[in-house]
Amino acid sequence: MCGIVGYTGPLNAGEVLLNGLSLLEYRGYDSAGIALFDDQDISVYKQIGKVKELKDRCADITDVSHCGIGHTRWATHGGVTNVNAHPHKVGKVTLIHNGIIENYHDLMERYKLASALVSDTDTEVAARVIEHYYQELQDPKAAIWKTVSELRGTFAFCVLFEDVPGVIYCIRRTSPLIAAATPNGAFAASDVTALLEYTREFFVLPEDTLAVLCPEGAFLEDAAGNAVAPEMLTVDWDVESAKKGGYPWFMLKEINEQPRALQDTLLPRIENGLPDFTEEQIPDDFLKRCKQVCIVACGTAMYAGMVAKALIEPLLRIPVSVHVASEFHFSNPLVDDDTLMLVISQSGETIDTLDALRLGKEMGATIVSVVNVKGSTIARESDYVLYTHAGPEQAVASTKAYTVQIATLYLLGCRMAMVRGKMSEEDAREFVQNLLQASEYEQQVIEENNDAIQEIARHIIQFDDAYFIGRGLDYSFSLEGALKLKEISYIHAEAYAAGELKHGTIALIEEGTPVIAIATQEPVYRELLSNAIEVKSRGAYVILITKKGAHAPKKAYDVQLTIPDVDDRFTGFPTAVCLQLLAYHASNEKGLDVDKPRNLAKSVTVR
Length: 607
Ligand code: M6R
Description:
single chain; 607 residues; alpha/beta; Glutamine Phosphoribosylpyrophosphate, subunit 1, domain 1; Rossmann fold; 3 domains; binds 5-amino-5-deoxy-1-O-phosphono-D-mannitol
C-alpha cells in the first residue's frame, strides 16, 4: 500500500526520487520521505502529509546526491507521524518497506529491541535486525539474507548501507517491486509509473531474490549467490499518460480517457468481427467444457464481475458466482478442475484477490485474469492473462479500469457463448459491433450530460445519504455508482435492488433524500418506475437515468438524465460514465481531494 522508489546513477537523485514519489503517491499519501547518500553519510528527510509537503521540506537541499531511496506511506503499523514515516535509519542501515512484517513482535523480543525502538513500526524492527546482522557479519548481502530468512509476512525493501555508497539492495516477498537498468543509472520502484520518464523496459524482481543496484546496472542473485537473469518486460504507456494533461484531477482525465481505453482493449481481440483470444492462447476447448465460472475480485473490480455475471449466466446457462475476494478463503468455495476462475484486478497486486487466486489454483481451477498492470503478480500467477489497455490509472477511484474490465469480460462471454453453441456467429458479430460502439455512447454522455450532472451534484452534496436503485443489470451498475460516490464525496451511499426497498430500506427515505434510480433495462422498466414513484411519493429527490426517448411520468422523478438509446446489454458503459461524473462533481464541489480520498490507497497490498 506504500510507494517505493530507489535510484543510483548520474542524475540528481533527490529530483528523481521526489518526482517518482509524486507519480506513486496514489499508493499511499499520509507521509513521505527520502534518504540520500551524501559523501559517506546518509541524510533522511521525512514529512507527514502529501509528497508536495516533502518537496517543500527538501527545497533547501543544496548538495546533489546521486543515490537514494524514497517512500510514500499508507500507515499500517503506527500512526501518521514523522517518526513513523520511512525511511528508517538505524546505525549504518537505512530502509524503506512496503508490506507487513507479521512476526515483528517475536523479533522484537528475540533481539531485545523494545527499549531501542523509536517508532511504532514493524519496518524499524526489520531495520534493526538487518543492522544487528550487519554488525555481526560485516556483509550487506549476508545481513539481508539472514534477516529475511527470519521474516514472516510481506515485504518489498530497499536498503542502503552507509559503508557502501552508491549501492541499493532490494528484496521482496509478495509485495511488488520492479527494477530497471538504463544508461542513466539503475532504478527500483513499486510500479512502472514512476519510471516512465526514464525507461519503459523493466523487470519484476523475482521473490526472495536480491537485486543489487549500482550506477552500472542492476544485478540479481539468489540466496546461494548464483546470478539470476531478469525477465524483461516492456510497457507501451508513455510518460504523458501518467500526468494530468491539463485536467484538474486525474479522475476527470481518466473518465475522459474511457472511450479510447475501450477501443484499445477491444480491437486487438477482434478478428474478422468476432472475439479472438489466440494471442492470449486461451483454449476454446476449456471455454467449451468448463462447468462453472467463478469470479473473484475486490471493490470496483468485483462490481465489474457482477455486471459480467448478469450478462454471462443467462447467456451460457451455467452457474456464474461472484466472490468478494477477502471472503473467498472462508467460504469453503465450490471450485474444481471444471471451474473457470476469472480474477479481476486493475493493479494486479491486491493481496486479497491474489490469495483467492492461489486458493482457486490449488483447488484445480483454470485461472484467467483481467489485469491492467503488466507483469503484476496476479498476471504472472494466472494461467492466462487478458490485459486491459486502460493505461495507468492514477486516481484512487477506479473509472476507466472498470469499463474496460466489463468490456473484456463481455468479449470473453461472447466467445464462450459462441464455442458452446449458445450464440450464432451472426449474433456474435452483432454483439461485438455493439460492444465496439460503446465507446461512442460513453463519449456522448461526457459531451452531453456533464453540465446537468454537475448541477445534480451541487444539489445532492447538501445531504448526508444517497441511495442507488436498479433491477437486473441496472442493479449491478448501481452498486458501483454507490461505491464511487461514497469513496470520494464521503456521502453515505447504498445500492439496493429496487424491489427490496419495500422490505425495509424505504424507511430511510426522508424529505429530499437523493435516490438515483437507474432504469435502462426494458423488461423491468415499468417495475423500476413504480419503485421510483414509491420513493418520490415519500419525499425522495429522484434522479432517474433512462435511455433517450423512454417515457417516464413526472411523478417518477425530479430530474431525468438520459443515455443513448442502445441495446439493453450495453447500457452499462454510458451509465457508468454518468455515475462517475456524479461522484466526481460531488467530491469536487465539496472541495475535497478527488484523487486521494481520505483513508484510502490505490493498491491494497495488505490483508
Ligand atoms: O487493483 P484492484 O482492481 O484489484 O483494486 C480493487 C479495489 O481496491 C478497487 O477497485 C477499489 O475499490 C477502488 N478504490 C474503487 O474505486
